[in-house]
Amino acid sequence: MLANQYKPDIVFHPATTLNEKLSEMGMSIKEFALRTGKPEQTIIAVLKEDSSLTPDMAVKFENVTQIPAKFWINKQARYNEYVARKKQEEAIAEAVEWAREFPYPQMAKHNWLPPTRKIEEKTINMLNYFGVASHHAWERLYVETDLKVAAYTSLKQTHQPHAISAWLRQGELQAKQIATPEFDAKKLKSNIPQMRQLMVEQPGDFFEQLQQLCFDAGVVLLFTPKLPKVPLSGSTRWINNKPLIQLTARYKKNDSFWFTFFHELGHILLHGKKYISLENVDFAAADPIKEEEAHQFAIKQTFTNQQEKEVLQNETITEQNIIDYAEKFNTHPAMIIGRLQHDGYIHYSVGRQFMEPIDLNPIN
Length: 364
What we know:
The protein is mostly helical. The chain has helices at 14-25, 29-36, 40-47, 55-65, 69-94, 96-100, 104-109, 119-130, 135-142, 161-176, 185-201, 206-216, 254-271, 288-302, 305-312, 319-329, 333-342; strands spanning 220-223, 234-239, 242-247, 277-278. The radius of gyration is 30 Å and the shape is elongated. The model has no long low-confidence stretch (mean pLDDT 90).
């Protein structure tokens, strides 16, 4: 909504002026209809404000009333805008409770929305954020969606559809600002060894390097901070034929980050444009088979099942064992520890020294 925009309290329909002019001229509706060549019922509908005055009518009215057609056209346009804005005000009022469902303070903290405590401003900002005219439109897009495009899926079965949709929308807005080359699956596959090496070495700028390797193959990789009560670790979608991997770095540990990244990468290479992944979220369109395929893809890139069996052949697993196996398999010790913990072979308190923190959040 534009600042300092003049919004009059009331704008009258052209019928007000027309009624006054007919009275002034002492002319009946029937005579006016005959003189303008318009059906009497059409004139009556305008006078009752049941119908709009068209440019064709404005020109004909000019001939009879001597009031310029431009006046009639502008009068109708101002009235139409007034009615539309009144309807929008009603839509905003109806959407207030909807807007309360979003974690607005956290979204503002991440600079996704301007900070405000006024619920009306929050509502307007939320509608603008999603690019919708009403909360009903949001529901049709994110809850009852019938769109056959990969950017949207029904969130009806999720526990936090409002926060999840806000997170997904942020990725969509970020992705639209990035012009990538055309997607190249061969290039993406050829870049995987370099991606794996970043996992092994994890330099300070690993995420920027990872983004570039994805970008070179036409893939957008984004970090979008998670919102409260949303268990999302990552998502894969195609937006305007552009594959998007969106990550939260939810657990802030390198083993979780890299496994999630390769899981989402697997969806891009294995499942094409129509499948949407929402990692750790139950939703209607989730495909257990595709999720398992992506899971196995991530295992292959981080620490294979065969490698795990080799490690488990040891009666005891020492810290040095983990270091040696990580070097032998060209992986990071955290990937070995993380898998052994996940599969129940060691307690989650064991091997913490191998875990490296992941902090991609730019907010202090």
